[in-house]
Amino acid sequence: MKAVVYKEKGVFSLEERPRPSLRDPKDAIVKITLCSICSSDIHIKHGSVPRAVPGTIVGHEMVGEVVETGPAVTKCRPGDRVAVNVETFCGECFFCQRGFVNNCTDEHGGWALGCRIDGGQAEYVRVPFADNGLNLIPEGVSDEQALFTGDILSTGYWAAQISEIKKGDTVLVLGAGPTGLCTLMCAALYEPGAIICVDISEERLELVRSRKLADRVINPLKEDTVEAVRAMTGGRGADVVIEAAGGEDTFRMAWEAARPNGTVCVVAMYEEAQQLPLPDMYGKNLTFKTGGVDANACDEILRLIAEGRLDTTCLITHRFTLDQVMEAYDIFENKKGHVMKIAVKP
Are 39 and 269 in contact (CB under 8 A)? Predict the structure, then answer.
């Protein structure tokens, strides 16, 4: 089968690989019907993910059809359409029992697919702990609608959840990239008083406006973000700030824009270490939350998609076949053609 392989730092290639087979009674084999390229794949390529294993098939955003299951799999069967979770988790360890599936203590727990074990930018993928890692796609939900369930939509859902957004809160989301857009959609589920979105791309901000994903947008190249947020909140700052941008100065922007005793939730993946300037922020009494998504709500997310309350299809700007995937990578990595997300069909 064809598959995208992480060869070494800076090198991905499309290769022929053997079709995967069951290795454990809890495994399932899924025929990929649609997959995508994530910014985390680019981080792997750049060598910014130390745990990534050269020689691994990349890809962790995917949907498909179950073609084979191990004898211990009970949740799905051959022929079922499924969304694949970005995380591998046993469901039994200390962390899994508390919903902290990103820190599953199994050998392949957490983000394994497409990083430490073969992922889904391929024709087939082996999914360990299939009862946990596969979620049935409801009838009437398309592959494109379900595509981001197991990763960036789970990230947005989790970020909104752990930020403890209350009705009437002012929520500031930094970044209108794919994860930021998913976060905006999920924050709205909590009925905040106002949602503010910050990005330096006018095109992305226009998408936010046109989809009515925020009540106010800010371009920090044109106005001071912290001052604008304070002006909207009686001088206090945002009740909740979710940092989904991962820019050079967005971590500082996040805590500066938060009100005293507010919450700052960092879900961005940085390529460089960030400073925590405690003397500068002393007295703000902020609560910081960071992640690694715990993608433990995929069934709920798929239900919300089926009900029409979440729709991420607007993120898909380009479509390619797997044969064309290296061209797709060039477009995505170098931000050509106003790309947002790419759907790849094997």
Answer: yes
State what percent of residues in the chain have pLDDT above 70.
100
Cα–Cα distance measured from residue 270 to residue 276, given in angstroms and rounded to the nearest whole number: 14
Torsion of the alpha carbons at 99, 97, 87 and 160, rounded to the nearest 10: 0
> By CB neighbour count within 10 A (0-12 exposed, 13-18 middle, 19+ buried), where does 16 fall?
exposed
Is residue 155 predicted with pLDDT exceeding 90? yes
Is there a contact between 78 and 94 (Cβ–Cβ < 8 Å)? no
The CA dihedral of 310, 147, 88, 175, to the nearest 10 degrees, is -60
CA dist 39 → 55, 92, 253, 269, 272 (Å): 19, 30, 22, 9, 15
pLDDT surpasses 90 at 248: no
Alpha carbons within 13 angstroms on the beta-carbon side of residue 29 total: 13
* CB neighbour list of residue 223: distance below 8 Å, 6 or more residues apart: none
Buried residues in 216-247 as b, exposed as e (16+ CB within 10 A): bbbbbeeeebbebbbebbeeebbbbbbbbbbb
What is the enclosing helix (H) or strand (E) of 45? helix 39-45
Residue 273 is predicted with a pLDDT of 87
Can you name the residues that pair with 57 across neighbouring β-strands?
A: 5
Other C-beta atoms closer than 10 Å to the C-beta of 291 total 16
- Among 182, 114, 184, which residue's Cα sits nearest to residue 344? 114
- What pairing do the DSSP bridges indicate for beta strands 61-69 and 81-84? antiparallel
Q: Which residue has the tokens 């998913």?
A: 182
- Among 125, 129, 86, 89, smallest CA distance to 109 is for 89
Q: Residue 263: which H helix or E strand, with range?
A: strand 258-266
The residue assigned the tokens 């971590």 is: 251
**300-330 per-residue burial string, b: 16 or more CB within 10 A, e: under 16:** ebbebbbeeebebeebbebebebebbeebbe
Query: Is the distance from CB of 243 to CB of 251 less than 8 angstroms?
Result: yes
**Residue 188: C-alpha distances to residues 50, 147, 165, 210 (Å):** 35, 20, 9, 15
Quick one: which of 299, 296, 228 has its CA closest to 90? Answer: 296
